[in-house]
Design goal:
five-stranded mixed beta sheet, alpha/beta, 403 residues, globular
Length: 403
């Protein structure tokens, strides 16, 4: 056990969300996992311009510039900050969001050297996410050696998806190496379905539900009977619908063209499809949806980026309506999905033929239910909390092993 300087009756649990050059830590009381006690994040690790951001609300007055050349230093800074803020308490378990579990890990898993070794072996499955996540986990294990460390996987939610929707149309010899459609944002979708069942009831949650997680990363998932049927992200989190800086699905011939005619190397193409495309690529200006909406009326490229984004998501909703044989509920989540009434309205525009009717006033104030009373399809806005699902999964595993 590791002791902090804050006293409470139970122990504490940390939820860690690692990025390629950032890490966010959220502290929970073990006896109350519905809301974090506190949070802190460090961004820009290894860039020479790292910053520590305390709390969950951005405030430029509280930003601290720190020296964080690597994850081990960043984790020590997080520990010091927690000790100063939280006082003396016991940290019994740390849960991590890990993007990819590969073919092996489909449940929350206690992390040991074997787990780390396997995760390193599949870094090519998600090269923009996995290396940083593994470095982050190892740094926390070094700083907190006596604590139980639990990996919670974004891909696990989709492990029982129908075989046909896990399949890629490639030679069998390659698919047998684990190259298939996995799906991502699973921790978010698990939270959304849990919240939907708690508030709207089991019947609604087990109906034909289309969920749209729309943040910097964007994906949609179709569910029936509380289980995923299909999802837009496949082998990597780059695939599916267009995102802030990621292409989503693109014509394979474009890649061949860039290699053959432009002489671009694999790393250059990877950088293009993950960091320079999507909303940023089309607008040639920004990946920020709020900025694009503010400038769409005087800037044709901004307008095109917004229109393309909404059209592709609308098209995917239509595809999932066909796959499900109809739709009972549509749920929006993520930064864009939760905050932009205009994007939600434009995505759903023209879907009245299937019974979607939006209440403009409810939509404007981001109400939980934004469909009208005469709508035959319930349309909801549910803020997602992956951290709560990680906290619950990690604690359940820890308690199960210590009964």
């Amino acid at each position: 056990m590791v002791y902090l300087e804050y006293v409470n009756e139970g122990g504490m649990l940390l939820v860690i969300n690692p990025g390629s050059s950032s890490v966010k830590a959220m502290a929970y009381d073990e006896s109350e996992l519905e809301k974090a006690l506190n949070s802190v994040s460090i961004e820009g690790i290894g860039t020479g311009q790292a910053t520590l951001l305390p709390g969950s609300v951005f405030d430029e007055n509280t930003i601290q510039h720190v020296d964080a050349p690597d994850y081990i230093t960043a984790v020590k800074l997080i520990r010091e900050w927690l000790e100063d803020e939280m006082g003396e308490s016991v940290i019994s378990v740390i849960g991590y969001r890990i993007v990819h579990g590969g073919e092996r890990y489909k449940q929350p898993t206690k992390i040991d050297s074997e787990v780390i070794e396997y995760l390193r072996s599949i870094t090519s499955f998600a090269p923009n996410h996995m290396p940083g996540a593994i470095d982050c986990v190892e740094a926390f294990r070094a700083v907190y050696p006596e604590v139980a460390h639990v990996a919670c996987f974004d891909t696990a939610f989709f492990s029982d998806m129908p075989k046909v929707n896990q399949t890629l149309p490639i030679p069998k010899s390659i698919s047998e190496e684990g190259v298939r459609r996995y799906g991502f944002h699973g921790l978010s979708y698990e939270y959304l379905l849990e919240s939907f069942q708690d508030h709207e009831g089991e019947v609604a949650a087990r109906g034909r539900v289309i969920l749209a997680h729309m943040g910097n990363g964007v994906s949609l998932t179709a569910c029936h009977n509380g289980q995923p049927v299909d999802t837009t992200m496949g082998f990597t989190p780059v695939s599916g619908v267009p995102m802030s800086t990621r292409t989503g699905d693109i014509e394979p011939g474009v890649i061949f063209y860039l290699m053959r005619e432009k002489g671009m190397a694999v790393e250059e193409i990877s950088d293009m499809v993950t960091k320079k495309s999507g909303l940023l690529g089309i607008s040639d200006d920004t990946s920020d949806m709020y900025h694009l909406l503010q400038h769409q009326h005087e800037n044709e490229s901004s307008a095109l980026a917004v229109e393309y984004f909404c059209y592709e998501i609308k098209k995917q909703i239509g595809a999932y309506i066909a796959a499900l044989g109809g739709v009972d509920s549509i749920i929006f989540a993520g930064g864009i999905g939760e905050r932009s009434d205009e994007i939600r309205a434009r995505v759903l525009e023209g879907l009245g033929f299937i019974g979607v009717v939006i209440d403009p006033e409810r939509n404007k104030r981001n109400a939980r239910l934004i469909s009208g009373d005469d709508s035959s399809v319930g349309v909801h806005v549910i803020p997602t909390h992956e951290d709560i699902i990680i906290a619950k999964q990690a604690m359940a595993l820890y308690e199960g092993e210590n009964r």
